[in-house]
């Protein structure tokens, strides 16, 4: 079976210093305006990490370079794949994201990734109904690939952030 083309829609970095990373990405990629979401809580009722309920907080900043969403994540508290990444690798490129058209396709993409040998290491549902999951295949050189379903409500926020780049 030939897989469907799934071009990345987002590139994300994990850092200890949002200001420094935003400044450098602005200089290198031409992002004009960053929208910050401080204190995003990933709650144990809706999120998991390594098969256990997750309970962590991260500061997140979003921008765009053309149609590519740029995300910068700074862990604040609690154990997470972001915090573990920083501890093990230091700040840097963390993941790219691909999108599912709907929740059913999201689940099918996760199942397909698992069947191909990738492990689902984290997943959850954010307020507004955005589904996300991180799959990992480190032996194949893929630390994390995020799969996300973005409903219309969240899409309108992303569209606003993209418009702010003009």
Plain-language structure description:
The chain is 28% helix and 43% strand. It is α+β, with helices and mostly antiparallel strands and 166 residues long. The chain has a ten-stranded mixed β-sheet with strand order 2-5-6-1-7-10-9-8-3-4, sandwiched between helices. The model has no long low-confidence stretch (mean pLDDT 95). This is VOC family protein. It comes from [Mycobacterium] kokjensenii.
Write the layout of secondary structure elements.
Elements: E1 10-14, H1 18-29, E2 35-42, E3 47-49, E4 52-53, E5 56-65, E6 68-77, H2 81-89, E7 92-100, H3 103-115, E8 119-126, E9 130-137, E10 142-149, H4 152-163
Parallel strand pairs: 1-6, 7-10
Antiparallel strand pairs: 1-7, 2-5, 3-4, 3-8, 5-6, 8-9, 9-10
Query: Numbering strands along the chain, what is their spatial order in the largest sheet?
Result: 2-5-6-1-7-10-9-8-3-4
Amount of beta strand: 35-45%
Let me know the number of strands.
10
Classify the secondary structure makeup into a structural class: alpha+beta
Tell me roughly what share of residues is in helical segments: 25-40%
Mean pLDDT, to the nearest integer, reads 95
Order of helices and strands: EHEEEEEHEHEEEH
- Low-pLDDT parts are none
Largest sheet: 10 strands, mixed
How many alpha or pi helices? Answer: 4
| Large-scale geometry | globular
Q: Distance between termini?
A: 41 Å
Q: Radius of gyration over alpha carbons?
A: 15 Å
